[in-house]
Amino acid sequence: MLKIAVCVSGGGTNLGAIFDAIDAGKIKNGEIVSVISNNPGAYALERAKAHGVEAKCISPKDFGNREDFNVALLDGLKETGADLVVLAGFLVNVPAEIIREFKGRIINIHPSLIPSFCGKGYYGLKVHEGVLERGVKVTGATVHFVDEGIDTGKIIAQKAVDVLEGDTPKVLQQRVMEQAEWIILPETIAKICNGEIELG
Fold it and tell me: pTM here?
């Protein structure tokens, strides 16, 4: 059984999609052992508790400097015994020491078709604002391995979503979540748990 730790910063809708896939038997051979958030008010922590999963907050505000936070986050992840770390809307630049410790075992969901609208400054609604400003007709989501760059790791899965006339960033964000993120993230985790995608 693959042990999965999920890192989140907000509502945890992608986390919810993973729980749904586990409950529906779509993800076999895997279990979420811990949910970690940098935000004490993240609703994702409530989702974890509702599923009987350990929920912990490791906030940079509780530490004197970034280095101490990075050490605490690394220790927190190591304590979970996770085989796979899933970044599901985790608005923290993962430090190099964590990437080295979990080399080839961290995946991220990004709400665009990488290499478009990714990298520094592109997160959350800012991605969808960028898409609408440029006037592109197709966007989507990408699951990729995490390396020491920002959104530069090897792409695992992508799914396209149409941009429609009159879309606002919020409307587009919801469509991308429903039609892409909540589909390809659980599918990718299922494939990893089944050995169809190799880690590390």
Answer: 0.96
